[in-house]
Amino acid sequence: MEYVSAGSSLGPQSRTVQILCCSCGTLIDPNPLNTCAACLRTQVDITENIPKQATLLFCRNCERYLNPPNDWITASLESRELLSLCLKRIKGLKEVKLVDAGFIWTEPHSKRVKVKLTVHAEVHGGIVLEQVFIVEFVVQNQMCDDCHRHEAKDFWKCMVQVRQKASNKKTLYYMEQMILKHKAHENTLGIKNAPCGLDFFYTGENHARKMVDFLQTILPLKFTQSKKLISHDIHSNIYNYKFTWVIDIVPISKGSLVCLSKKLQQSCGNISPICLVQNVASTIHLIDPITAQMADISGMTYFRYPFLPICNPKQLIEYTVMDIEIIKERKQFPGQGPVSFKHVIADIWLVKSSELGISESTIHTKTHLGHLLRPGDEVLGFDLRDAVINNADFEKLNPDNIPDVIVIKKHFGDKDKRRRMRKWKLKHLAKEADGDTDMENDYNEFLDDLEEDPDMRTRVNIYKDSKKQQIPVDENDMPDPSVPQITLEEMLDDLVLDDVEMADA
């Protein structure tokens, strides 16, 4: 029986023919099954091959989900990552067309994750049917491999031990900042402080070798490798080893005074035996404070002709400049190495700041800092007359050729005030032990070197200290224009991720 819809008086071309549903008798448009959509849904289930329940494996220690076969990913509740993982776990979605997917809220502690899906599928005769259904995921706890090794005290397979046997730790602080800038520590399982350095732990040998190769490019060092047998499967002939790399960094830091051997002097352009360490990077940069002659010593050369500092920055004495006279003509000789023209050689007369006004005798010496010093300035230097130096190469020198005082750098007044005015900070790899005065002094000296050396700052990431920038400046702590400071343009914004809603709660 055929029915003609209302409005048939408009003509035969405007007629719409409808039929009755064979099941419920509802007027519908003709289709090959002569069945309405409601009755078709009761007869055909396009999701019958899709399971309505599944499982998710979750590690409670590291809060990661298993992404088969062996990957563990971090995903928060109702996130894109978790939704993508759930869809991968649902079998049979290839037979239908996924239109929409979303989460249904569940209690976070219920161990249930519900996903609402909308799919399309083509049934008999080209009819497209849409269906909405829910898949429930049960979250089951399972410890991942990394956490399992950690709990079994076997969480690392490779360890890199970095050590520097020196009284000053400024080279270690520089190494730490280089690792942070180049993100060379991303693949580490953990970083632990040691009395003379740092320990890096890794799960694989490749990551440990990358760290060793990186350290070789930034510092002069030598390393030794060892391995320890943990277990051995005699049936499959599989060995389980733990690898350890021990790295020895040269025991030299910036500001140390060294005495070179005769062979090393000749290989460095007949430089003076008493030299000042200007910087320690991929090579050791030396400068003669009397003639401003420079030399670069690689790690291989250093370990072939090793030398130790005869004076360390902890032995510095404060002097006051009474008079200074620039030396315009420099003496040169055939075979001389490179000379620094950034430094100016000058005769200088000094008095110990502690004896200023008491003693009238002055000490005469030469310095390479003539471009920085003026009468009345304070400098830091080593007193070689009263210093106790146990060095075989130093004892061979003629006492008449040894200067009384070696000037190291200009002194900029109160250290405490300078630290209070510092509105920047550095990041660290591991938390240091509190209460160590020597390490704190070494770290503050490293910060002073950053302020005084613009070239060194370009290799380090410096961040704004938001806490100190909000503190109003005291009248007594007004910055001295002569003190070198780091400008705001050189500082980076520290990335801080805060949850505003949780903070308000």
What can you see in these coordinates?
The protein is 20% helix and 31% strand. It has a six-stranded mixed β-sheet with strand order 6-5-4-9-8-7, with helices on one face. It has 505 residues and is an alpha+beta fold. The longest helix is centred in the C-terminal third of the chain and has 16 residues, at 437-452. The protein has helices spanning 37-43, 80-89, 145-151, 170-182, 205-218, 262-267, 299-304, 392-395, 415-420, 437-452, 454-457, 466-469, 500-504, and strands at residues 3-4, 17-20, 27-28, 53-59, 64-67, 71-73, 97-104, 112-122, 128-141, 158-163, 190-194, 197-202, 221-233, 238-249, 257-259, 274-280, 284-287, 294-297, 309-311, 317-326, 346-352, 363-367, 378-383, 405-411, 424-425, 463-464. Strand 13 (221-233) and strand 14 form a beta hairpin. The two termini are 68 Å apart. The chain is built from 13 helices and 26 strands.
Tell me the layout of helices and strands.
Layout: E1 3-4, E2 17-20, E3 27-28, H1 37-43, E4 53-59, E5 64-67, E6 71-73, H2 80-89, E7 97-104, E8 112-122, E9 128-141, H3 145-151, E10 158-163, H4 170-182, E11 190-194, E12 197-202, H5 205-218, E13 221-233, E14 238-249, E15 257-259, H6 262-267, E16 274-280, E17 284-287, E18 294-297, H7 299-304, E19 309-311, E20 317-326, E21 346-352, E22 363-367, E23 378-383, H8 392-395, E24 405-411, H9 415-420, E25 424-425, H10 437-452, H11 454-457, E26 463-464, H12 466-469, H13 500-504
Parallel strand pairs: 4-9, 10-14
Antiparallel strand pairs: 1-2, 2-3, 4-5, 5-6, 7-8, 8-9, 10-12, 11-12, 13-14, 15-16, 15-19, 16-17, 17-18, 20-21, 20-23, 21-22, 23-24, 25-26
